[in-house]
Request: fold
Amino acid sequence: MKAVLVTDGIYCLPVNLESYQLFEGMWPMPNGISINSYVVQGEKTALIDLIEDVSGKPAEFEAELESIPLEPKDIDYLIINHMEPDHTSWLPKFHEKNPDIEIYLTAKAAGLLKSFCGIENNVHIVKDGDTLDLGGGKILSFYETPNIHWPETMMTFEESSGILFSCDAFGSYGTLNGVYFDDQLSTQQHDFFINEALRYYANIVSSFSTFVTKGINRLSGLDIKTIAPSHGIIWRENPQAIIDSYSRFASYMSGPAEAEITVIWSSMYGNTEKLVNNIVQGVRSEGLPVHVHRVPDEHVGAILASAWKSAGLILGMPTYEYEMFPPMAWVLDMFRRKKVWNKKVLRFGSAGWSGGAQRELDSLTEKMKWEFIDPIEWKGAATQVELDLAISQSQALARQVKEYCAQ
Ligand code: FEO
Reply:
């Protein structure tokens, strides 16, 4: 692949990680992900962010650099927006090729540069609003945006072009193959990248939603013409589309999400499963979209995106040895970690000789601002009583969700 010209003197160097890899060692990527670096050429040349040292990817990066044409030793400045290894694990080897490169990053990033890469020379700490003049009309300014996605994170803005190099923020899953800009996308491809942005957000960024809102407010004074993230498509026709999407995703943590319900269910011997059809029917009868996920068949990475976007959750889960069914406990603990907060919730589930799942669920979700309606619990096989309750309680939850989202 060749470097992609963004505008005069500015290039994107996208390298795709394929779908067989797990992001952060745990998140499935059915559509892969791109890791984008950028070159900005004035009289001096800056490289913004780097790549992960996996599966021959550095060779692809160097081939793209060569297409400009540049070699690692030709780079004057390395701008590190974010130290997570998907952007920096190749840095020690890159640094061997250009040991005199001047590195610009935040103070917290400098600490991580030392601990991850052992690099301490030619390091320049930048503060919010600092600038670096590359000559030739290209001036980079730096904005600290902590916790999008790590505490050391900043963004870089190129003033003459209005390009914001946002690193993880405004990123998405999905590889780049011949299409790099939002104005090249069909409606279907546009929806694909917005959906991949949601899944990426729910997996990677959601815990830091208050910081996303703060960061977006912080950047509101900039005349942003293009959003150039380090994952996914470049937004040059309508950068506000991805800014608005991220604002909306962030708002789901502290208030109502969409008027939709996500049903997540698990069953040991089919007794809890028996209510699922009626649950779905009840939600649909109230006119709400419903998304159904079975655990452990589906990975929590996909379930998270659906749950993050839905104002209502229905959890089908039997009691297992006095506690929650373990595969559901894993999903729900991830919801706690990722701050899936402020939901309207119903739980249904069977037990053998004793309940206990609801008690553990109440304890786990104590600080998650979930509002439960009465659960449907029974011992052994479900009867017509539980089947009827599945309809009436899911309808009741759907009505609550509609009221909540109408506020
Ligand atoms: Fe793309 Fe937080 O790293």
Q: What stands out?
A: The first strand starts at residue 4 and ends at 7.
